Structures are given as C-alpha cells and as structure tokens.
Amino acid sequence: MTRLERASANGACPERALAEGHQQDGVGAKAITRRAAIGLLAAAGLGYAVLYRPRPDPAARGRTIVDYWEKWTGHEASAMQAVVDEFNGTVGAEKNIFVRYFTMSGIDQKSMVAIAGGDPPDLIGLWNHALPLFGETGAIQPLDGFLEEWEIDGRAYAPRVWDLCRHTGRVWGLPSTTSTIAFYYNRGLFREARSAGLPVDPDRPPRTIEELDRVADALTVVEGEGASRRVVRSGFLPTEPGWWPFIWGHMFGGRLYDESTDRATAASRENVRAYQWVRSYPEQWGPGRLSTFQSGFGNYFSQEQPLLMGRVASSLHGSFLSNVINRFRPEFDYAAVPLPMDGPLVDDAQPVGMIEADMLVVPSGAKHPREAFEFVAFTQRREVQRRLAAAHGKSLPFRRIAEDEQFIAEHPNRMIRVHEAIANSERAFAKPRTRLWPEYRAEFQAGFDRIWRLTDTPERVLQGIERRMQAALDRAAENRERRGLPPLEGRA
Amino acid sequence: MSDDLQRARAAQRRDDLTGYLWISPWVFGFLAFMVLPVSMSLFYSLTQYPLIEKPVFIGLENYRRLMADEVFWKVVFNTVIYAVFAVPIGTVLALLIAWLLNQNVRFLGLWRAAVFVPTLVPIVAAAMIWLWLFNAEHGLINRVLMPALATVNLLPGVELSTPAWLTDPGWAMPALILMSFWGVGQAVVIYLAAMQDVPESLYEAAELDGVSPWGRFIHVTVPMISPMILFTVITAIIGAWQVFAVPYIMTGGGPDRATYFYTMYLYDKAFLLGPEMGYASAMAWIQLLIIMFFTALVFLASRRLVFYRAG
Fold first, then answer.
1. Region A379-392 average pLDDT
2. What's the CA gap between A85 and A382, in Å, rounded?
C-alpha cells in the first residue's frame, strides 16, 4: 500500500500525508542536506570564480605586469622568452616592470576580439601586414610620442623596414624580427648538372628570368611515358613553398597596389607578363603531373623539406630556412641570391626581394602602455636584435654598420649577407600596405590556382582580381566616409 | 482553506521553485548564449561592423552585396553539391550497412564496433589520416588504383592516370564527399536500433508471401524505420550546410575555391577577410533560411514517404 493509499484509508488529507511522509521517512531531511551541500558547492564555485587571482611569478611581486601576446612557437618562441627574461632581470627590475609572455595561434583574431571586448593585453606581436587594419580602426596606438620620448630614431632603421612600421603618416609598430625572401638553390645538384655538361654553374646562379628558365629546364627530371610519365625532380617550381602566389609580378617590375592613388594594379602589363611566365611551367610539364609531384612533399619544417631532399633544385625562401637546414641536414650545400629579374631590371647594387617583419604593437585600451613600450624599446637595442635575429635565422632591421660584421660572420644562415643586402635595398618590396590585404591575398590564391591549372588566362584572372579588389577598396573608402573619418592619403 | 492544504501548497511551491532553480542555469545559458547573440546577429546583419570598430547601420546593404558576391554564389554552389551527394549516398550507405549488421553473422559485435569506431576518432586526426590516404603520390588510395589503371591503360587509346585528389579542383570535392562517409557509423547505430524494433511478424508475413530478403528490406524494413531515416536525413542536411572543420584542415577551401564551403566563407568574413562581422551575420541568417527551406521540403516529402506506427 502506498503512502497516499494509507492516508486515504485513515481519512487523513492526502497532501499533508505526503508532506509528513517526506519528513517521517527522512527524505525531507536528506533533501535539505543535499540542498545545503549543493548550495555550499555553488557558493564555493562562485567565490572561487570571483575572488581567484592567479598567483603571480614571485619575481613580479610589487612590479607593474605587462601582458605580452606573441604568435611564435618552438625555438622562435624560446628566443623571445630569453629576451623577456633578460628584460625582467635588468631594465624591468630597475623600473619595476615585469613582462608576462604568452604565445598563441590565431593571434590577429584573438587580439581583435580582446581589443573589441575592451580587455586587451599590453603588447601584441603582429605581422607588418596587419598594421593598416589595426591602425586605421584605432585598435592599436600610434607610437610616435613614445619614439620621441625614448629617442628612437627612424633613420637608424633600413628605409624599407621603417616603411613597414608606418601607415597613414604614423608609426604603429616596431620590428621584433625582420626577414627577406631570396632565391635558394642546391649547389650539389647544380654541380652534378654541370658535370653532366648541362648549362648550370653552382658559382653563377641565375640573375635573370631567362637564366632561371634554363636552369629549371636543365635540372627538371621526368620519368616514364604516356600516363605513367611523372616529374621526379623540378629545377624550379613557382608553387614551392607556395606562400607567396602574389610575388611574381615584382620580378617583372610589377606591383599589386598603388598606395598613392589607392588603386589595385593586379592587371598591369608587368603582372600579366609575370603570370604568363608562371603559366609556362604547368604548360611545359603538365599541371596534373606537377600537382601529383608536389603532393609528395613533406612539411616545411622537417627533414622532408623538398629543397633539402633534392626534389626541387631551387625555390624562394626566407632566411629562416637555415633553421630547417641546420637542424635536419647541416651538411646541405646551398646558396642564395636576390630574386632573378626580367633582363633589363637586373641591378646588382639594388637587389630585389620581399621584406617582412614581425611587429610589436601597443593595443588601444592597454592598461600599461608606457611600461609596454619600455619593453619594446629594449627589444630595439642593436645587441638584442642581433640575438633575436640570429636565433630566428633572420636579418637586422637596421641600416648596416661596421659592427654588424661579427653578427653576419656568426649568423646561422651563411647567406645572411644576401638577405641583409635585400633588407637595405631600395628595391626591397613588401606586401601592399592596405587593410584589405587578407582579401587581396585570398583573391590572389584562388586566381593563381586557375592560372596554374591552365583553366583561365592570366589576363582574365588578373583583371577579375583587380576589379574585385578595386570594388573592395572603394567600399572601404565609403565606409571611412560613413564613419566621418578623413579619406586615406591616396583618395584625398 | 485548511492548514493542511496550505502547507501542501507551500510544499508544492517549494518544489516548483526547486525545479526552476535546477533549470535556471540552462535557461540563463539559453538566454545569454543563444537568444541574445542570435538577436544581436540579426542587428549586426544590418550594419557595417568590422569587429574592432562600432557597428554602423546600413540597412539591407549586406544582403544586397551578398546577392552580387561571386564568392558567395561559389560557396552556395559548392555546399549544395556537397549536400546533394553526401546526404543521399551517406543515407543509403548507412541503411545498407545497418541492414548487413542486422543479419545473424559471426563476429557481429566486431563488425558493429568497426563501423562505429571511426565516428569516435577526433575530426582533426581523421582529417590527417585522410590527407595521407588521398596523397596523390604516396597515398594508399592511388597506390591501389595504380595497378588497376595500368591494366586499363593496356587498352589502345586509353591513357588514365591516378587523380590528384586534393590538389585538382575536379577531384577535391569528390574526395571530401568520399571522406564524409567516414562518419556514417552514427546513422548506422540509429538505423540498427530502429531495425531491431521492427516486429518479427511483419517479416514472417512477407516471407510467407514469398518476398525475397531484398524485398523484405525495401518493403518492410525501410517503411518501418522511415521516421528514423527522416530524422537522420534532416540532421545530415543541417550538417552538410555547416561543414567546416574537415575542408578547413584538408584543403583550406582550395584549389581555386573548389572546396570552399558556406560556413568557411562565413567564418573568414567574420574574422579574417575585412573583417566584416555584419556581412558574416547576414550570411548566417541566409544560411538559417536555406536550412529551414530544405528541412521544410523534406518534411513535406515525408508526408507521403514516412510511416508512423500507431500505438
């Protein structure tokens, strides 16, 4: 018989009986105890969430903490950690500043969300191409005032590096590391080819596009016949490592964007010629065969790196390639030269290559911008830059001085002199300085795929890219107007 | 009113309050993390909002721009193609596997586990495995195809080569559709459970009428589990319209945007390209309408095709 039935039989009120029953069989008492326990747990959880503060590093006690977000991992992250530690132990200790260093992926998105949410770190390591977006939207602070106060002179930097730091007439970031892109080749394969009587010389690498094509033809090896015909080695491959599908126009004197007029110039005559040249590679060897050949390549940072493996005889690389070589194949015999150019554009005094930099920026809303800049200023010391550049396998951001000779002599990349020359050259070029660069790059990647697969002509592809990008640039100008912001210099 | 009744009502109120307290985290979560962001995204879809600047109201401009955006139509096309192939083939495949696993064969538990285990593999790990399987030069799939194609190529005038699965725009989409069947085990488990619920008497009656095993599957099993098929088809359509992680890892949307899907473009617009959170929000609302349209279409079709058992 249930409790309800028993109560009904005794003539008692069923609801009361239920309530009493709860009390008598102890369920009510248990429920209260459980509630109390859950309440206690909830209160403890809430208290922990509200009151918890991470225990600071003992060395940070009493100091202003500067939170620094950086994008690197592995040895690159460790190199900056060493700089942070050195700062915390010297200048930081003296000025009561402690830099707390965090490394993460997707730093631009995370920074954007943190800044938009009003809780940014004090310092962020971005790429130079992110400065226009972050600068124009007011997400980062201009550094001009700090530069004056800390007496950091832009004239100490290589002119092209200094250009990377600037946008709309202001300085938005200072370089943590600087790298340039050059033409690398496998001297061993060049030697073998020369021994076989081919027109290749390891001591005379290609300086022009015509010479590059000759080297590529001589060193490309194809096996088999008919459907089983396959590329087993490429003399030169414009899709390796594939990070810069937009770079080739510069080797013909082209550029992608005219900052002085805010115009996209993807379809310029020089660019069309450049991509007709790019297209000649899949035309000659077959896009499917090249695609299959390239799919067998290993990761960039591994012993299966195709240049190290001898699968490609030459390709474009940043100076940081030396980290891969020194770790996985230190005996690899390589050399580097500036980018080969269209014949009339060759000028040994002003070598051509792409220049990039990792930029330290102070976000808007940073709690300790002055202290953050104290650390930035520390990283701009020449000896600190030398250590960072050597650890990353990169160049110095400064104009060359005689004292840099030792840095060059001891650098892990034996071709660093070439990279230093590019960094100091007036013809070093960078990615277009526009906030729309990520869109431009995405358009270029898709267009490059069509050119490479021979599914469209370079003229049509580049015209399409230019049309879409110009529409995006015009829209960005409209949006500035809508927000009451003055037009960019090129539009004014 | 008697004291007893008052006390009982007070106890009832306490019980109600306890109930509300227990569900309050969910209600709060639903309001804060679902209703609020969804409502805000509707507002943002009417603004120019680059995430780090304040949103500026621009009316329906984002929607107008979307209609003229070549990349938008490309991702819609890609996603439709993916859904059109992955959903029906995946459903039929899952049904057939479930039917086979419903037979009385040896090592049944082993086969069932083998079909379900792939769904437990983390998506990134699965994508990496398939990256290697599809590798044009060293991948297992092409290694298996090579001798077969070599035999076919002996025929005069025939010259076939193995596909560059993920780097050829013509093959990248079929490769991803093929890979989508990796997760078919989840639907198989649902179908298998439904099949075991089909009354044996129906099969016996069909058998007495001389219906073949295949006929019994088509005319008894499929109609009897059709509510489950409806459920999995709808969830598969929603899943297909939201496909993101696998193509993001395996192809990044390339080559030539051949595997660039709706949600990838939405994400890129929100955080990378622009960023244009307003534009991405407009895309999200259009995506919702598309999914609702297809779901309604399936529901309409289901009136004639789905059978619900009475009682």
1. 96
2. 17
